[in-house]
Amino acid sequence: ALQVRRNGDFYYPIYFEDGFEKLADAIRTEGLENRNFCIVTDTNVAPLYAAEVQKVLSPVASKISVFTFEAGEKSKNLNTVQQLYKVLIEEKLDRKSLIIALGGGVVGDLAGFGAATYLRGIDFIQVPTTLLSQVDSSVGGKTGVDLEQYKNMVGAFHQPRLVYMNLHTLRSLPAEQFACGMGEVLKTGLICDGDFYQFVCAEQEKIQQLDTALLKKMIRRCCEIKAGVVERDPKEQGERALLNLGHTIGHAVEKLMDFKLLHGQCVAIGLIAAAKISLNRGLLTEKEYQQIIQGCESYRLPTYIEGLHAGDILAATKKDKKMEQGQIKFVLMKGLGGSFIDRTVTDQELLEGIQEILR
Ligand code: NAD
Ligand code: ZN
């Protein structure tokens, strides 16, 4: 397992496995056994994996309950959290109990927020089942829910006690959702590891076929990079903002498309815009710029959109909460695998990047 620092000298493990069998041992190793467990999951994941996880956990749990909510971002709100609290109370979960987030990023964010706030905070573990949640959202300790149209507006930093990935769960994931996870993988490589970016592009075929060894290598590297960034900057005062590469314009597109495009797809579009701005500044060569487009295309991610206006995207981009005193914190690329935060990107530069993603 990969060991990730939590607070000070406290570490938690991330497991990369081919099944659920080792979950019980992982729980014992962290001393989390013989507690009252609540599995939190959604209506797509529950029929696929909840029974198996329940069975694997039964030898190490004093009691197991399951809370299942309607799959989708629409459920990531305080209403669902309130329903979760009620189940936790009914099932008599106490300060020593354990929440198990079984599902994608929506489940992880919501269950993690429930764990962070129920009884002022109880332990939870992440069992991420989407590529996006395995490479991104299950690591880093950000939890939270949306408030009406405002994404992740209410939340808490709460680190899991362990993260357990069963890579076989990716076999049931719809191709579009897999592609979304790849958007974050490509982003991760572009932030700080050019060799990794090249590896992911070169092994495209096998990765798409879900070759276990390659997936493990890829997901592990993403977790390592994210954990490293988060460890050095847990509360996003500096370096952690690099993880927003492609997200500034990406979020604007996501919002304007009324969430009809998936997050990872918008990240890909945002990466292209950020790459174009970097190209215009001479920070990327034309060849590197083309490699970024090819990376997205080879993983069936969109690189442009139709039906939006540049001015609207610019306005939405500038409304982003990552603004600091009116200055936009924009992440630029420098070569494949280099990135930095820049506060001098002008509206004109943003517009040129945005033009590149419009058809
Ligand atoms: P998701 O949880 O909605 O999962 C996508 C879809 O796949 C859902 O319909 C889900 O039911 C289904 N699914 C999950 N696992 C499956 C499986 N193995 N087989 C078949 N179907 C499966 O979305 P996501 O893309 O995993 O995560 C997106 C969420 O993560 C967003 O809410 C975003 O804000 C959040 N996020 C959080 C962080 C963080 O740091 N906390 C980082 C990035 C994203
Ligand atoms: Zn993202």
TrEMBL record:
Names of required cofactors: NAD(+); Co(2+); Zn(2+)
Pfam families: DHQ_synthase, DHQS_C
Annotated InterPro entries: Dehydroquinate_synthase, DHQ_synth_AroB, DHQ_synth_fam, DHQS/DOIS_N, DHQS_C
SUPFAM superfamilies: Dehydroquinate synthase-like
Keyword annotations from UniProtKB, A to Z: Amino-acid biosynthesis, Aromatic amino acid biosynthesis, Cobalt, Cytoplasm, Lyase, Metal-binding, NAD, Nucleotide-binding, Zinc
GO biological process: amino acid biosynthetic process; aromatic amino acid family biosynthetic process; chorismate biosynthetic process
Chief localisation class: cytoplasm
Residue stretches making up the 3-dehydroquinate synthase N-terminal domain: 67-178
Record localization: Cytoplasm
EC number from the UniProt entry: 4.2.3.4
Binding site residues for NAD(+): 105-109, 129-130, 142, 151
The keyword Repeat is annotated on this UniProt entry: no
Binding-site residues for Zn(2+), renumbered to this chain: 184, 247, 263
Keyword Nucleotidyltransferase assigned: no
Cofactor annotation remark: Binds 1 divalent metal cation per subunit. Can use either Co(2+) or Zn(2+).
Pathway: Metabolic intermediate biosynthesis; chorismate biosynthesis; chorismate from D-erythrose 4-phosphate and phosphoenolpyruvate: step 2/7
Superkingdom of the source species: Bacteria
Start and end residues of each 3-dehydroquinate synthase C-terminal domain: 181-323
GO molecular function: 3-dehydroquinate synthase activity; metal ion binding; nucleotide binding
GO terms for cellular component: cytoplasm
Catalytic reactions of this protein: 7-phospho-2-dehydro-3-deoxy-D-arabino-heptonate = 3-dehydroquinate + phosphate
Similarity comment: family membership: Belongs to the sugar phosphate cyclases superfamily. Dehydroquinate synthase family.
General function of this protein: Catalyzes the conversion of 3-deoxy-D-arabino-heptulosonate 7-phosphate (DAHP) to dehydroquinate (DHQ).
Record NCBIfam families: aroB
Name of the molecule in the record: 3-dehydroquinate synthase
Source organism: Blautia obeum
Protein encoded by which gene: aroB
